[in-house]
Amino acid sequence: MTTMPPSRYRVIEKDRRLIVIDTETGQQVTHGGPVAPAAPTRDRAPAGDPLSRRTRTVDDRSGSGVIRTSRLYDDKGPRDIVVGPNGTGMLGSGAAVAMIVGVVFVGIAIAFPAILLVPALLFVNPKARKAIRSAVTVWLDSIDQAGGSPDSAG
Predict the structure, then answer these.
(1) Hey, is 22 helix, strand or coil?
(2) What is the pLDDT of residues 102-146, one digit of tens each?
């Protein structure tokens, strides 16, 4: 095994303070003043700022998953929807349908590239955007209402 080279810096205690000494120069290493506090990260938001709180992913009462919607695709958004056992099945079915539609769309787009204009035109047209947003809101409402246990659905 090789030995580690000697460290360039040495830490000593002087008058109940830790001091860093540069072993090459023999001088005390100084810093440029007090260190600025770290900026808040996404994981630790300031306590008084309710808008930047982390989104909860599990409901405290039932233990079910929680999804947070956005105004971009939900007329009632932003809102938290507790996804119970019934809602989980609906959410999975919706994801499967979206994946199948996406794969079919990509397959058609390979053969006919002009079809790529269709989604762009849908997002530019305000009436089409409103219709899509309304349909997604109805689907999210059904997930929200089905959020109970499987035996309480009847």
Answers:
(1) strand
(2) 999 999 999 999 888 988 888 888 998 999 899 999 988 988 887
Q: 0.70 exceeded by the pTM?
A: no
Q: 146, 139 in Cβ contact below 8 A?
A: no
C-alpha dihedral (56, 58, 62, 68), degrees to nearest 10: 60
- How many whole angstroms separate alpha carbon 144 and alpha carbon 80? 9
Using N-to-C axis directions, what is the helix angle for 117-124 and 126-145, rounded to 10°?
A: 90
Instruction: Please give the structure tokens belonging to residue 60.
Output: 């405290």
**Helix H or strand E encompassing 126:** helix 126-145
Burial class (CB in 10 A: 0-12, 13-18, 19+), 143: buried
CA dist 119 and 122 (Å) reads 5
Distance from the Cα of residue 43 to its chain's centroid: 11
pLDDT in tens, 46-94: 454 454 455 567 765 777 788 888 888 899 978 888 888 888 888 888 8
* Dist CA 64 CA 52 (whole Å): 22
CA distance 101 to 109: 12
Query: How far is residue 150's CA from residue 87's CA, in Å, rounded to a whole number?
Result: 10
